[in-house]
Design brief:
Peroxidase, domain 1; 133 residues
């Protein structure tokens, strides 16, 4: 969840940087966004690891996501590329699609971030699968 909430901050239209660790670097701002409610505890748990190692917050968040996904049975290994600079600014608010957004709003936001309609449907379907027992 942290990986997506950090990365979806990418917006050529609004100037968000994306997978840059801004959700950690600017946690006081970004965890106050409605769409990031509850993420503050996850962010706090990651901060000691980042402080202990010579790694940018963006690299840490994306590395943790790649490792976490690859530990799931049957999941693919996600390539990881090191070298993200530290975020210079927080992500703008309202870039994480919300359940109350219309389909058109969600598709427009995700298109701005580079997702096709088919990819958005797959991503939304994964929420249902992940929540299943």
């Amino acid at each position: 969840i942290l990986t997506f909430h950090d990365a979806i901050g990418f917006s050529p239209t609004l100037g968000g940087g994306g997978a840059d660790g801004s959700i950690i670097t600017f946690s006081a701002i970004e965890t106050s966004f409605q769409a990031n409610a509850g993420i503050d505890e996850i962010v706090k748990a990651q901060m000691p690891f980042i402080a202990k190692h010579n790694i940018s917050a963006g690299d840490f968040v994306q590395f943790a996501g790649a490792v976490g996904a690859s530990n799931c049975p049957g999941a693919p290994r996600i390539p990881f590329f090191l070298g993200r600079p530290n975020a210079k600014a927080p992500s703008p608010d309202h870039l994480v699609p919300e359940p109350f957004n219309s389909v058109n709003q969600i598709l427009a936001r995700m298109s701005d971030a580079g997702f096709s309609t088919v990819e958005v449907v797959r991503l939304l379907a994964s929420h249902s699968v992940a929540a299943a027992d």
